[in-house]
UniProtKB/TrEMBL annotation:
Pfam families: Self-incomp_S1. Coiled coil: none annotated. This is S-protein homolog. Belongs to the plant self-incompatibility (S1) protein family. Keywords: Secreted, Self-incompatibility, Signal. It is found in: Secreted. The keyword NADP does not apply. Residues 1-28 form the signal peptide.
């Protein structure tokens, strides 16, 4: 854990406790965000997410093929830089107004060579290609 991560982690924990103490069971439901590496060929995925509104920086993560990176949303949006081999992109991975209804508590992104798929449960279970690489 680097210095930046530890500086960010403490306010996140404090905020999480505050929210869960104040809210009702329904509105206090946490939303989880998962980024799953499905690139194949043992390719690593580098992930760096920030919440623009409150300036949380989740730090750099290297997610191996078949691995997942996940966190609970403590802000209304997250912007992530994703990189692998020679591809790179900056994507709005979570935005509460866009995603709260369709994610239903869990925004699950599957990262593949052709692009970023979001898992959607309705009307039928499927992964929908939302973004492609430049
Ligand atoms: C992925 O990352 C691991 C750990 O840093 C490294 O050992 C491995 O060589 C990387 N794989 C590729 C395909 O670059």
């Amino acid at each position: 854990m680097n210095l930046l991560t530890s500086c960010v982690a403490i306010p996140l924990v404090v905020l999480g406790i505050t929210i869960s103490n104040m809210s009702t069971p329904v509105s206090g439901k946490k939303l989880e965000i998962t980024i799953a590496n499905d690139l194949g060929n043992f390719l690593n995925l580098t992930v760096h997410c920030v919440s623009p509104a409150k300036e949380y920086d989740l730090g750099f993560q290297v997610v191996p093929y078949g691995g997942r990176y996940q966190w609970f949303a403590h802000d209304s949006s997250y912007l992530c830089d994703l990189a692998w081999h020679k591809k790179y992109g900056r994507f709005l991975i979570y935005e509460s107004r866009r995603d709260n209804r369709r994610c239903k508590g869990w925004c699950f992104w599957r990262i593949a060579q052709e692009g970023l798929y979001l898992h959607l449960a309705k009307p039928a279970d499927r992964d929908e290609l939302e973004f492609t690489w430049d």
